[in-house]
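Subject: Sanity check before I submit

Could someone independently write out the structure tokens for this chain? I want to compare against mine line by line before I put it in a report. The sequence has 235 residues.
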Amino acid sequence: MLVNNTDRDSLYRNVMIQTEAIRVLVSRISAYESFRERLFSGELKPGQFLTQRELAELAGVSLGSAREAIQKLEHDSLLKVHPQRGIQVTDVTNKFIRESFQLRSILELAAIPHYCDISQDRARETLDATKAILERAKTDSSSEVLSAAVEIDWQFHDELIKSTHNDLVEETYQINTLRLRLIRANIRLDTKRVLGALAEHIEILEACAIGDPIKAQAKLSNHLLVAMRRAMEGM
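---
Independent answer below. Compare away.
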């Protein structure tokens, strides 16, 4: 089949339009991920003010891509745009911590009966993995072990929410998790805190593994309250 010049030019234009659309999308995603990485690494400090241009230069993207990333980050409660003043990294205050943990408690305390009911085998696996990390952390306080402990901490909380099979709950949890990660990024992490959190997880998981939602809820409620206090004390 022969393709005339008009068809060839039309095809070329369509390819170029699609390529540009993909490039813009990748740039927006790159800007958003870059800003988040800098927030969670502590490179951008709570309460810090920046301009759109500074954020664009920091991420190495265009102003347009930076603006769209800023809008999403503001929706995620990680940035606040102040007219005439600039863009502020969300300040991690006691109020911010309290509200984030209150929402976490509402979601996870509602989720844990589902987890106890349908995820007992998974709870046993996570329990064994948590015990193994705890034993390592008792004698090895290296950054590698602490990072593994933090990772299994997040994994358990993620499992709780996924057990609900509720998209709206998961979406709300994921947005709040960004707030919690911002809090975590600005807490002084030490071995004592990690050991305490893992020991609390083990108590929760032991109740889940035998399908005891009442005991699991009580242990989880205490864990989240203690975690909130740790966060407030660690700032």
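---
OP: Matches mine. For the report I'm noting this point. Residues 5-40 form the longest helix (36 residues).
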